[in-house]
Structures are given as structure tokens and as C-alpha cells.
Model the fold of this input.
Amino acid sequence: MISVSNLSLRYGKRKLFDEASIKFTPGNCYGVIGANGAGKSTFLKILSGEIEPTTGQVSITPGDRLSVLSQNHFAFDQYPVLQTVMMGNKKLWDVMLQKDAIYAKTDFSDADGVKAAELENLFAEMNGWNYESDAANMLSDLGVKEGYHSKMMGELNGKEKVRVLLAQALFGNPDILLLDEPTNDLDVETIAWLENFLANFENTVIVVSHDRHFLDAVCTHIADIDFNKISLYTGNYMFWYESSQLALRQRSDQNKKMEDKRKELQDFVERFSANASKSRQATSRKKLLEKLVIDEIKPSTRKYPGIIFKAEREVGDQMLMVENLGKRSPEGEPYFANINFTLTKGDKVVILSKEHMAITSFFEILLDEIKADSGSFTWGGTITKSYLPNENSKFFTDDLNLIDWLRQFSKDKDETYIRGFLGKMLFSGEETLKKSNVLSGGEKVRCMVSRMMLTNANCLILDEPTNHLDLESITAFNNALKDWKHIALFTSHDHEFVQTVANRIIELTPGGIIDKRMTYDEYISDPGIKALREKMYPKLVKAK
Done:
């Protein structure tokens, strides 16, 4: 068990936590949520001992081992991959080093023999003889092939290092597991493996993630950081979100009788319990929800942006025709080839590829920002496009305040009109006078969304729209796209976003196009499509 009591943290006049207290118990997975800057990652660093709080203390049950997903991708560059994973179980690793050091002695004494015997017994008790094979299996499960196990960490790229560091954190069955954005840079298959691992993990997990599908799959509780406090709620993220929204609506309904409100909340809890999946985590959550006191459900104080896209005109019969489109990387490797498709009314298409730059290049070709190596495309005469790029730094080089920044992109220059669009994205009052070139990543994306809403386009092109956004903004964006009645081309690593928005899947590969009208979950679980994808990526087949 791990707990904090009377926790406070101040940086000058800024206060992140104020007398916060919370307890995390074994058998549960806690999702830590909060707006950008609320202190989620800082809280995990306090729990791990990396940061000292201003006041208060962290208590861990004596003997419990705490493991942390390292955010320093260079810390183990001088070590082999397999050893890096084994170092995750520090106590066992230290026993092995001591044992090996004794056996390496040239003047081996009787005392050394006694000490070696003690270490051998301890090593056996800790299942040390399976140490190396267990680490290798963990790496393989996370998609790190055996040929990489003997390489130095410094030889790996960023995505490969993330998998090794995740294996290190998970290795050796820690009592308390701290994970900060563990799904970053993982593919769908590896995330699914991690979800299953954590759903069957019997100790304590505390995780920060912006991936709602992941939080829903693994969490039994949500720890919400808000107003410098940490509030604990039973259930996964979707339960927290929907129950808090329901409670908020009820609070605003002054005429509804108390018993009617309680009945509505009770029905909501029962519905959520009945829909729980068969995983250990969901079964545990179902039992917790059945014991939940209705009065514990509170309305959320969090603010959600008002993302509302309106098209100035309907799309016509001709939207987009792509013929034999192809593009290579700067190194000459094929991003995609022989891409042929036609958009139809209402298409909301998620664009997939093993190589993200292939998708970005595809969007830039359609927007005439770069040229294709082969093929052509034709937009319909009624189509107006609005683009949210993944890389937006070129839009924020001037020191304009946010009102003047957004005014550049608007036909209507009236300040009240401009403030209205900024206000929808939660920029109000003095915040609208911020300089555009000093914004955070999340603030820049919110400004770019304000810019998109101004255009009233009928075709939205979105390159990783949820990057840098907090959960509230992601949820609002997701809801806006679900309600969108026109056409959209987008890519996203947010599973929930793709599953609930896309009605068509197009994957760009070096071997051509895969084009299916189905949900994302159907696409990734279809064995026929999996086999087809392997054929379309010749490099992957060769690597095997």
C-alpha cells in the first residue's frame, strides 16, 4: 500500500497541492487525471521520491517494492537491453551483482563461501534462476525481438527504448507500479497486451494517461487532481465522466425531486455494472460499483471547451478522387504507392500507416503543400478544407496577442466576434492577451482549433488532433467529430477517438491501399486484415 497525507507542494507563489491526502491499496488500478499543469506527473514523482513535497509525507508498506516507468530515455544507454530490464528488480539485481563479485575473487575465503551460500539461497527464493528468461519473455511480449536483447540501449531508437523501459518497470512483479503515459509510442497490439497485463496485475497500479480507452480498460478508480486537491472516485474514466456530467445536470435541475435524482443515479450505476467486461479489472470494478454510495457521485468542476464545427455549405456529389498516388521518403523508401479511392458523403475516414510521416505527407499532398511522386487527386468544386497539422510551430512565430493572432484568419475582424471563438476554447479575460509565441503545446492546439472553427469548412483534415490536449479537450473534440455530418480525413493514436468517429478505414502502405467500411475495433481484430497488412509491408515480412 502507498499513501500520502497532508501533502502540499509550492513553487514560489504557485501552489500545486494543498493538504492533499489519499490512499492507494493493492488489487486496484488508479488513473490520475487533471487539466494540463494540474500536477499529474509531479504527483507521481512525489510518490517515487524524486521530488520532495513542501509539507506532508508519503508512506509505503514496509517491504513493498516500488517500480517506476523511467522518463529518461538515455539513462541506460551504456547497458545491454536485457540487463536494463533485469535492473528493474533492483533487489534481485543487487543480489546477483554481489554473488558474481564474490565468485570473481581470486582469494576466495571461507567467509566468502558462507556469504555466497546466503546470497544463493536468497537468489533462489526470489526466483533468480528464471531471472534472465523472464526478462527476455517480457521484452518479446512488448514487441522487442530477440535479436535486440544483446544490443546496447544507446543503439535503439526512441520507440524501441520506450518498450524496454516499460519492460523494466513491469519486470519482477513490483508491489507498486507507477506509470506516466505508458502507451506513448506503442502500437495497437502492444497496448492491448499491456491492458491485459495490468487487468490481471494483482498489486497496486497508479497511472497517468491521456488515452481514455486505456484508462477504461485498466482502471478501478480515478484520482482527480483539481483545485489543489486529489479526489478519489470508484470506476474507470468513462464512469467518472458520465456520472459527473449526470450529477452536474441534476444539480442544475432545481425542480427534480431528490428521490427521482437518486433513482436516476442508481439506474446509471446499475447499467454501468451490467456492461462491465469479463476482465479481472472490470469484474472488480463491478463489485465496487455495487457498493457505491450514490451520494459519493459529485458533479465535476472541470471546464470543457466548446468545440463546434459548422459548415457554410453542403458538399456536392463530387468530393475527392485519388488515383494511383505514391510518395517516397527523403531516403527513397516508399511511404505509400498505388493509392486509389473516392470519398462519398458522410465519410469520416481514419488514415492509418505504420509510418506516421506517410500520413502527414499524404495530407500535405492533398493540401498542395508538397508534391506526390506519382498519381493525382481531384477535389470537388463544393469542398472547402480546414487543416489541423501535427506540427504547428510555423503559426506561432510572432509576438501577437491571441486576439490579434486569431484575427489574422478571420473575415470578421470585430474583437467581440474573435473573443467568442477564443472563449469557446477556454481563453478568456487576460488570457486572450497572452503572446502567441510563448504558448504551451496544448494552448497552441486550442488556438488552432479556434482557427478551424472560424473557417466553416465542410472538410476537416486532422493530423493527430488530440496531441498535447488534456482529457477534457480530447473529450470535447471527440464529441464534436461524432456529431460532424460532413466529411473528415484524420489520423489519431487515441483508440476511443478513432473507434467512435471513423466510419471508414484507409491504410496507406508501400504495397497499396487497404480500404474498409467498418469500425476500428473490427479492423484491428480481423485476422484476414492482419494477414493482408503483413503482405502490404514487405519490410516487416522480411524482418521476420
